[in-house]
Design a protein that fits this description.
heterodimer, A: alpha+beta, extended, disordered C terminus, B: alpha+beta, nine-stranded antiparallel β-sheet, 47 helices
């Protein structure tokens, strides 16, 4: 459409030019001729690189790619392999599972929490900081309506949004006439299992492992995106006139009463949950086990007990719950895929390079010199 | 006057051509058009115009003119109020816009909404508003120009003030009297009532209407003609009745009824049209007949037309496929969602949010809603920006074509004009070219070459160039083009004539004798007849035309000579307006200050005049170096000018032309004034024009007729006076044949002396005819027929129409490019055939089928026989699939293969055959019953030449080929007779040459010269096509690839319509991030350099076969798009599998990867990397990251639901992101890159070979190309040597594909070539046997001639004669006029010799052979067909 506009003006120009040109013929000869400018651009003679894709010209690229990718792949693979990871499923599907009864009886409406504990053994010590995740499977946090069901203004501490949440939160916007804080389906389905980890040493004493609950969310989320409604320092007062999400046991200002800067909307567990996962099988950072000073491993090998306060029903949608312990590298968590991918693609490139070399030798040699008569 | 934006006012100069479409009525046989019936139906539909001054108020109740439109024009489409609704309404006529608005509105439905509704509106609002702003701007320009035009001044007679007062144009009303002064523009269509010109003429320039720059004369209405001095509006009380407003510029009919009850007819010569400029006339007064929008100029003013290119049609099919794919994907997702919902049963998981009302949705309902949602999400698949991008790219292409230096003609300071902006890519796909001959292939600069008077030939040897004349004239098949093209261009003009000394002497002698006789008052009839013929001949040349004389010093000033004879040297000083000599005219003009001013102007010295004359004449084409004081002739056709100049060279010059008088200056005799009684203008049916004059010396009423020899010869008085005149006719005919064989345009000049009684008798009926309102044309036609009989032949002229520069080369290379070239000309067969040889359209070694038939049956038979002949002749030589095709010929609908002539199975091969068909036969052949056969014959011929074809036939031929063969056609022509053909063809090209602008106005592209067609098609056409084709394919790929990413994601989000790509990216990806590089590539990419494209015309074939964009390529691209999107989706998927990544932190890398992949994909497809490509790609990437970083830092709470705060910033700190960015594009593009590399080596397309040639050092390349040109041209090379660049596969599994250079067609051609040459040898051995007797008879003839006419140059070189006899002369011999014969095969040695001869009238077959060469096929239109080898 801009084009058409250009067209018309251009056309007009041309016509005018034509006329002035022709009228100049008999009269004043001062009118410039319509000869086009001899510029490289207008004559389409801009200096240019003209690659021609033939076996001969392309095969170095394949070899180079192959030679670069394979080492990178190996490096990535090794890095990934050095990461230690341990995973335990505590959903309680299996009848032998310690959480079986919890899983079976529990629903969102239960008022009593159910506690179960899982024993596991770490074969190898975890050296550096260990990240403790909870993982959910078959949980479609990326469902379109689910993703939208939140009010960022409310979470950012906007008072008007607190009292009058966005309609995106429907049907979790109000309850009994009171606005829900935090509103929406995401908040409503907040993961509320509590996981505690104990180390069982050789003489069967349970040593609780300190789990840092802060620093698990993005810094920007914690400090910019999520804010408690300003005004009163007392969150209870601030959230007066709102009601808790229907699935929650306790209101938002009681998420972590112990620490003021981890309570309300800026509770990091809550913030982590609010960052909706991309895929139906996901993990979310739950706690961090800081590396102790000295040479002692963060988690020595041995027996552990995971105490679970089983609040979160997943069996209705065939979901799974896991606890994951993992160290991380500069690359993030354990994932051998990228290394393998690099190695594979590198090898394919190398192989194709060889194929091209053959093609080149067989068919391409005469191309450049032999047949061209001088 | 034509509005529409492009008005330019330089005080008095108004110019506009854009948007003007003038309907040029075809001059068809009035007998054929049913004028009567038209008139009857229109009888009561007339307009009555009264003078306004009779009434108090122009709008008053009693004024009969009050209902007519006033002169205010309004070309704007909108008003302030109506703009928005009207513009939107218009925009919604585009289906795409409706679709996108529908999608956007769908977002407002809560259950469906996928995006933020406001955001979803953004692209569509953007597109709509850009268009609206453009429309508004255009409309504003129109409004401004309207205003300017409406407020121009003119003089209108005021009833109150009793004088002419200045008024705005818009205030002019029908019935007003308007006074017009020199160089004023007419505000409305005005009936000319009086003129200051003593001859009651008014000259107008119609360049703004039809582009013709010569002046036209308009006459005062007859009843006002006799008014001596003044025209007093107050005394006017006549009533005018005329036609309703119509758009036919060349028609105006009506009559004026005076109070006395007398009726006078009105002609188009009485009407001055709005927009024309008054020239050479001091003052004129007229009454407004049509005003404002009812003027003919406004009625002709249609908008520009819109053509849709083949590529776009193809694209639309694929857009349709995209819609199908979209629907399938949506359906798939909807079903998937339904199933996904279903599997949960009643247990509603927490993440499946209820509807806002809190109600549960059944799986089926969800699926239905989801279907709509998915349409929104996937909308990008239908590329909203594709249409915009294509438009932009086309504009740029037009710009570059326009800027090409090679398409600029220095001589005329004109360059190519693209008038249609949206079919540039069609230029790269042409398959058939239909060309006019005159003015297109030839210069249309006529040079008088030779003449024959009274049976004596006078050859004019200008500059001694025709020394080897006899040889050339006898050998039309050999090296004619050398003769015609080797002359230095632009040296010879119409007026450069070196008179033949002998003839000059005779003229001198004759006129001195006449002078003597006049002096002694002896009757002129005593003059020897040959001498009187000579003088009559030149008088006829001088006066039998419509040439207007003007003096170069005073442009556009009519040369006026007072009655006295003045020596020519003084003529310029004598240019004074005769009106000043007349007392009353000066009285008339004295009250008006303006007119004195004009007169003052005129009295200024000539050199000063230039600065005052506001509109210098526009002789763009006629760069005549006129010497001081010389007269200049302005003719409607260049032939006429050539003849007048020729006559002047013999001192017989036209010095003045008035409507009733022609002044001629003759040697010794001085100036003679011929009273011009009638001019019977030229029309294409009569093919002649006549003037009736009273001869001043003899006082006889004489008719001079000039016309095509075929018609004149039939009108010659039968030779009753003895052998002499018979032999004159006979010899003249001979010379005419030779002229025609030489490619000269021939005209016969004849005269007739009428007795007073005869004249009176004829005059009476003629006057009746003239005053008739109904069927006037027909009556005038009949009247002319009555007059033009029993003529006395004076002589004939041969005018050369030189070939334009580079025509043979252009035709040769266009033909190598696989284009079929048909020449459709109105010229006669011999001339056309010779020009065809000269421009290498026909080649000496080619066989020619000539089809001349005079009845439907004969034509059918001829076609049948030709088909059999072709079949028989080429059956053995061609491959068997061709034979199959030929047997299928007779099932009429299987003949024509589908629109895509796949290179492997072209059932029709083009043989080395030429087809010549004349207009009459063509008319039969174009009949419904025969057209299939005709096409079957014509398409298997390499070149087709249609002679004597009318404009209508031209367009019918184009239409036939276009519709039946489903090919792309290009028509090129320069004159009004080509307009219909140009309009019918897919691409119409006009040559802006000598014959006005009519063809140019109808065309899509206007070229200054024919040879530019080569670069336009081979280079620009190829580029435009390949650029646009690649861009469109890329567009489809890009959108599919991007959308497929979201589609794959549906498998991981429960088919819920969720998108991991932020909606902003999703919406602006096409509009911003990936838009520029493709535009740059689409505009600038050059697959092969211009030089190589021109040197290897074969590369054009790829465009003809649509090889850049075949239907399968769309699907290949789609498959590649799906593969690439899979890679771009699943590599991040696995890389982030089971991690704590969130939705948009995962989606952003995918977007980035897709962008990289898409840009690199473009990189692979880009053939030429200029700095602009680099810049645009880096700009795109930079833009994406800048926008992403800004967007992600801007607002922590906005942009729900993605809320991408700080996402990109975090990603940039993540090494994983970079690793993904490296591996994913590489993996995604690996197959394509590998395929391209293999293709480049194993089976390169011709274009790729061309590119490889480009890469070679210049020296080597030149060697190869020169070698290839030699070899390709040579008949024996079946394979051009540059093929060696393409590697043949070792096992020969796929021969056609890898050897597709040259394409099968070309290689077939070369095979045939060898075949032909072999035959040629054979033939030449057996040749002398055949035409032995004829050879003898012909040499007899020549000796006969040489004895009779001693100036005949034709027998000088007997060797030449011998050499060419068998070729050229045999055609005359075999053309026994009474025989319908196809004498086809020249290879007499072979058994395939087929000879079809059908004698329609057996007895007449044995005419004396000596006579036969004298007869020409046109002369005796009996069934005659000839075939020459």
């Amino acid at each position: 459409m801009i084009a058409a506009m250009m067209a018309s003006s251009y056309n007009a120009k041309e016509e005018d030019g034509h006329h002035s040109g022709s009228s100049s013929h008999g009269g004043a000869g001062a009118v410039k001729s319509k000869k086009p400018d001899n510029t490289a651009f207008k004559q389409q003679r801009l200096p240019a690189w003209q690659p021609i894709l033939t076996a001969g010209t392309v095969l170095p690229a394949f070899f180079v790619i192959g030679l670069i990718f394979i080492p990178i792949g190996i490096g990535l693979y090794v890095t990934s392999n050095n990461i230690k990871e341990f995973e335990v499923d505590y959903t309680g599907v299996d009848i032998n599972s310690p959480c079986y009864s919890c899983a079976k009886n529990f629903s969102w409406n239960s008022t009593q929490s159910c506690v179960c504990s899982v024993n596991f053994t770490l074969e190898q010590p975890f050296e550096s900081n260990v990240f403790m995740y909870y993982g959910l499977s078959n949980f479609y946090q990326n469902h379109r309506r689910y993703v939208k069901s939140r009010d960022d203004s409310q979470l950012n501490g906007d008072l008007s949004a607190l009292m009058n949440p966005s309609k995106e939160c429907e049907p979790y916007r109000t309850n009994d006439g009171l606005p829900i804080a935090p509103c929406g389906a995401i908040a409503n389905s907040l993961f509320n299992d509590t996981l505690d980890l104990y180390y069982v040493d050789s003489n069967s004493t349970k040593t609780p492992i300190p789990l840092a609950k802060k620093g698990i969310a993005w810094w920007t989320d914690k400090h910019v995106k999520f804010r408690n409604p300003s005004g009163n320092t007392n969150l209870t007062v601030t959230f007066q006139g709102t009601t808790k999400p229907v699935n929650w046991r306790k209101p938002v200002y009681e998420l972590d009463p112990s620490e003021a800067d981890n309570n309300g909307f800026i509770n990091e567990d809550f913030i982590v949950w609010m960052r909706t996962a991309a895929l139906p099988t996901f993990r979310k950072l739950y706690r961090i086990i800081q590396k102790k000073s000295g040479t002692t491993p963060t988690l020595p090998s041995g027996r552990y007990i995971l105490d679970i306060t089983y609040n979160y029903p997943v069996l209705s949608f065939d979901g799974r719950k896991r606890m994951i312990l993992s160290t991380i590298s500069w690359m993030g968590g354990k994932n051998p895929f990228l290394g393998i991918a690099y190695i594979t693609v590198g090898s394919i490139c190398f192989f194709l390079g060889v194929v091209l070399l053959i093609i080149h030798h067989k068919y391409d040699t005469r191309n450049n010199s032999a047949d061209i008569p001088n | 006057i034509i509005p529409r934006g492009t008005w330019r006012h330089k005080k008095t100069q108004v110019k506009s051509r854009r948007g003007l479409r003038v309907r040029f009525p075809q001059k068809c046989d009035p007998r054929l058009t049913d004028e009567h019936s038209v008139c009857k139906t229109k009888e009561n539909k007339t307009r009555t115009v009264h003078a306004n001054i009779l009434y108090d108020n122009a709008k008053g109740e009693e004024n009969p003119n009050r209902h007519y439109a006033n002169n205010k024009i309004k070309t704007t489409k909108y008003t302030l109020l109506s703009f928005l609704p009207k513009n939107l309404f218009e925009q919604f006529h585009r289906f795409a816009n409706v679709y996108f608005v529908f999608i956007a509105l769908l977002n407002f439905v809560p259950v469906v909404n996928a995006f933020q509704p406001e955001l979803a509106l953004a692209p569509v609002v953007f597109i709509l508003s850009v268009t609206a702003i453009k429309d508004l701007w255009e409309d504003y320009r129109r409004h401004r120009s309207d205003k300017e035009i409406n407020h121009m001044d003119c003089l209108v007679y005021s009833r109150v003030e009793r004088r002419y007062v200045e008024k705005y144009w818009k205030e002019v009303r029908v019935g007003d009297f308007i006074r017009l002064r020199c160089n004023e523009i007419l505000p409305a269509d005005v009936l000319l009532l009086t003129s200051s010109d003593p001859d009651r003429l008014c000259h107008i320039e119609t360049a703004t209407l039809d582009g013709e720059t010569n002046l036209k004369q308009r006459q005062v209405v007859r009843s006002f003609f006799d008014l001596d001095c003044d025209f007093d509006p107050t005394k006017y009380n006549s009533i005018i009745e005329c036609e309703k407003p119509n758009n036919d510029l060349n028609r105006f009919r009506g009559y004026i009824i005076h109070r006395s009850g007398r009726r006078d007819a009105l002609y188009k010569e009485n009407l001055l049209l709005r927009g024309c400029t008054i020239r050479n006339t001091e003052e004129a007064v007229g009454i407004v007949i049509y005003a404002g929008h009812e003027t003919k100029a406004m009625l002709n003013n249609n908008g520009p037309r819109y053509k849709r290119s083949k590529l776009e049609r193809q694209m639309n099919v694929d857009v349709f496929w995209c819609v199908i794919i979209l629907l399938v994907m949506c359906l798939f997702a909807a079903v998937g969602h339904g199933l996904w919902m279903f599997q949960y049963g009643d247990k509603r998981p927490v993440f499946d949010v209820l509807s806002p009302e809190g109600t549960d949705l059944s799986p089926i309902m969800s699926a239905i809603y989801l279907f709509l949602t998915m349409i929104i999400v996937f909308q990008v698949l239908i590329p909203i920006s594709l249409f915009v991008s294509i438009e932009i790219v086309k504009i740029c292409q037009v710009f570059f074509i326009h800027q090409d230096m090679d398409l600029y003609d220095e001589e005329t300071d004109s360059h190519l004009q693209c008038r249609a902006l949206n079919i540039t890519e069609d230029l790269g796909q042409m398959q058939y070219i239909f060309s006019d001959k005159t003015g297109t292939l030839t210069e249309n600069k006529m040079v008088f070459r030779r003449c024959t008077v009274a049976g004596v030939e006078y050859s004019h040897d200008p500059h001694g160039q025709w020394t080897s004349l006899s040889c050339h004239t006898r050998s039309p098949r050999s090296s004619r083009y050398l003769l015609l093209t080797d002359k230095p261009s632009s040296v010879l003009q119409e007026k450069d004539i070196t008179p033949d000394p002998q003839l000059l002497d005779k003229v001198n002698e004759c006129s001195s004798q006449m002078d003597f006789m006049r002096f002694h008052s002896q009757p002129m009839s005593q003059l020897p007849s040959d001498l009187s013929d000579i003088i009559d001949f030149f008088i006829a040349l001088t006066i039998c035309n419509t040439v207007v004389v003007s003096s170069p010093n005073q442009p556009r000033q009519k040369v006026k000579l007072s009655e006295g004879y003045a020596p020519p040297a003084l003529s310029s000083s004598l240019i004074t307006n005769r009106s000043s000599n007349r007392g009353c005219s000066s009285i008339l003009s004295s009250p008006s200050a303006e007119s004195t001013l004009t007169k003052l102007d005129e009295e200024k010295p000539p050199n000063l005049e230039h600065t005052f004359s506001p509109v210098p004449p526009c002789y763009s084409e006629k760069a005549w170096a006129v010497a001081e004081g010389e007269l200049r002739y302005e003719a409607e056709s260049p032939d006429e000018a050539a003849l007048v100049y020729a006559a002047r060279a013999y001192k017989c010059s036209l010095v003045g032309r008035l409507p009733d008088q022609v002044t001629v200056e003759l040697p010794h005799l001085g100036k003679l004034s011929f009273e011009l009684l009638h001019t019977l203008g030229f029309d294409s049916t009569r093919k002649r024009m006549s003037v009736v004059v009273r001869h001043p010396l003899t006082d006889q009423i004489t008719v001079y007729t000039k016309g095509a020899d075929s018609v004149i010869m039939d009108l010659i008085k039968p030779p009753n006076t003895g052998e002499n005149s018979h032999s004159i006719v006979y010899r003249t005919q001979n010379y005419l044949n030779l002229y025609a064989a030489d490619g000269l345009r021939t005209l016969c000049i004849a005269k007739k002396v009428l007795t007073k009684e005869e004249y009176a008798c004829w005059l009476q009926r003629h006057l009746e005819a003239e005053t008739a309102i109904q069927g006037r044309e027909e009556l005038l036609f009949e009247s002319a027929l009555r007059l033009e009989t029993n003529l006395h032949l004076l002589g004939a002229t041969g005018i050369e129409d030189r070939l334009q520069d580079g025509v043979p080369e252009t035709i040769a290379s266009l033909r190598k490019a696989g284009l079929q070239i048909w020449v459709l000309t109105g010229d006669k067969q011999e001339t056309a055939v010779n020009i065809a040889y000269a421009c290498k359209l026909l080649e000496p070694e080619e066989e020619i089928l000539t089809l001349n038939a005079d009845s439907q049956e004969a034509c059918a038979l001829l076609l049948e026989e030709s088909l059999h002949y072709i079949q028989a002749k080429f059956l053995c030589s061609s491959a068997d699939h061709a034979a199959k095709a030929f047997t299928a010929n007779f099932a009429p609908f299987e003949i024509y293969p589908s629109s895509s002539p796949s290179s492997s199975s072209v059932p029709f091969m083009v043989h080395r055959l030429g087809l010549v068909i004349d207009g009459r036969t063509l008319a039969y052949a174009l009949d419904k019953s025969l057209e299939d056969k005709f096409l079957a014959v014509a398409r298997s011929c390499r070149s087709v030449l249609c002679c004597r074809s009318t404009p209508l036939q031209k367009s019918m031929v184009v239409k036939l080929v276009r519709n039946k063969l489903k090919v792309m056609t290009l028509a090129i022509g320069d004159g009004a007779n080509d307009v219909s053909m140009i309009q019918v063809a897919d691409v119409g090209v006009g040559i802006s040459g000598q014959e006005g602008m009519q063809a140019v106005m109808a065309s899509d592209f206007a070229l200054p010269r024919f040879r530019y067609l080569q670069k336009l098609l081979l280079v620009h056409g190829h580029w435009c096509y390949s650029r646009l084709a690649n861009m469109i394919l890329y567009f489809f790929y890009k959108n599919a690839m991007f959308v497929a990413l979201i589609f794959w994601y549906q498998f991981y989000c429960g088919f819920s319509g969720s998108a991991m790509i932020d909606q902003w990216y999703l919406i602006f990806f096409n509009l911003m991030f990936s838009a520029f590089p493709q535009l740059i590539t689409g505009t600038l990419d050059k697959d092969v350099s211009a030089e190589t494209l021109q040197q290897l015309p074969q590369l054009y074939i790829s465009g003809q076969n649509s090889e850049e964009y075949k239907p399968y390529m769309f699907w290949m691209n789609m498959i590649d798009a799906f593969y690439q999107s899979l890679v771009c989706f699943f590599i991040p998927y696995f890389a982030y599998a089971d991690s704590d990544v969130d939705l948009f932190t995962w989606g952003t890398p995918i977007t980035t990867l897709a962008l990289f992949t898409i840009l690199l994909h473009l990189g692979i497809e880009t053939k030429t990397w200029t700095w602009m490509n680099w810049l645009s790609i880096s700009f795109s990437i930079a833009l994406f990251f800048t926008v992403a970083l800004c967007y992600n830092a801007s607002c922590p709470t906005c942009y729900s639901p993605s809320n991408p705060y700080w996402t990109m910033q975090r990603l940039l700190q993540d090494p994983l992101f970079y690793f993904l960015c490296v591996i994913t594009p590489v993996t995604a593009l690996l197959p394509r890159y590998f395929y391209r590399a293999c293709q480049g080596t194993l089976f390169p397309s011709p274009v790729q070979v061309g590119r490889q040639l480009d890469k070679l050092p210049a020296e080597t390349r030149r060697n190869i190309l020169s070698l290839s040109r030699v070899k390709v041209g040579s008949p024996l090379s079946t394979k051009p040597p540059f093929l060696s660049l393409a590697k043949p596969l070792p096992k020969g599994s796929n021969k056609t594909e890898k050897g597709s250079f040259p394409s099968p067609k070309a290689s077939q051609g070369s095979i045939l070539q060898t075949h032909d040459t072999r035959k040629c040898h054979k033939r030449s051995q057996s040749e002398p046997l055949g035409p032995k007797h004829s050879e003898k008879s012909l040499s007899d003839l020549y000796t006969l001639m040489s004895t009779e006419g001693d100036t005949l140059p034709y027998t000088k070189d007997s060797q030449c004669l011998d050499k060419t006899l068998d070729v050229s002369v045999s055609s005359w011999i075999t053309s026994t006029p009474q025989t319908d014969s196809v004498e086809l095969p020249p290879d007499r040695g072979s058994s395939q010799c087929v000879r079809y001869t059908r004698n329609s009238e057996e007895g007449l077959g044995s005419e004396p052979s000596v006579h036969q060469p004298g007869r020409r096929t046109e002369q005796r239109p009996e069934p005659a067909s000839l075939t020459t080898s």
